[in-house]
Amino acid sequence: MKAPTAIELLEDLIADLEAKLDLAPGEDPAIAGGGDGPKKSKKQEGKKQKKKKEGKTNNKKAPAAADPNLPDICKLEFKVGCITKVWVHPDADKLYCEEIDCGEEGGPRHIASGLRMHYSEEEMLGKRVLVVANLKAKNLVGFKSHGMVLCAAQSKDDGSEKVEFIEPPEGAPLGEVVTFEGLPPPAPFSGSQVEKKKIFQACVPDLKTDDECVGTWNGHKFMTSAGPCKGRTVKGGAMR
């Protein structure tokens, strides 16, 4: 396993501090605490006003902090993707390595999935999938995985499992972020925050398909501009 980079270590430290202070990602501690901060002298205020006048043409705004009161599912980011390349992990019996096009400027994501018992390489290639896109990257048996694909599972009579992808509709463009019927728009947390606050784990118990195989969280359907995301056959199955 590779050692974490300096940026990853810094992200961890920031996320850990935000978690300890119970702050949303990017939230100003002074604003969160409700305090006015130290009082400024007239001279400092004058300089501030002067800077405001000089910078009137600069309309850039700081990014809004994520709302910590959002439902947990809205703190995750599910993107429409397509598997463009797949191969067997050379050192893991259950893993595939995939390249998944999520319509991102950086190119396809590398993702590892434990699906070799459920899909052949031919069946995997070209599949449209949902990618959980704001999970912290992890090394899986030496392969760095930048997210995970969302599937539904159902137990069979023989004790084995049937596992299938939750698929976006054909008309949904690659990279589209899934919304949830009846809930506010997603405001994804950083990967470090998702890990520190165990947001994905908190969502798992309420992730399941409905009687029409549509993916839901606590009854709220996974939606795209082209309609709901659904499995092929699994009804009432756990999603993970």
Structure, explained:
This protein has 240 residues and is α+β, with helices and mostly antiparallel strands. Helix content is 20%, strand content 26%. Strands 3-2-1-4-7 form a 5-stranded antiparallel sheet, with no helix packed on it. Strands 10, 11, 12, 13 and 14 form a 5-stranded antiparallel sheet that branches. Strand 13 and strand 14 form a beta hairpin. About 6% of the residues have low confidence.
Briefly, what is this?
This protein is an alpha+beta fold.
What's the pLDDT, averaged over the residues?
A: 85
| Strand neighbour order, sheet with most strands | 3-2-1-4-7
User: H/E element string?
Assistant: HHHEEEHEEEEEEEHHEEEEE
Subunit arrangement of the protein: single chain
Beta percentage is: 25-35%
Bulk shape: globular
The largest sheet is: 5 strands, antiparallel
Percent of residues in helical segments? Answer: 10-25%
Rounded Rg: 21 Å
**SSE class:** alpha+beta
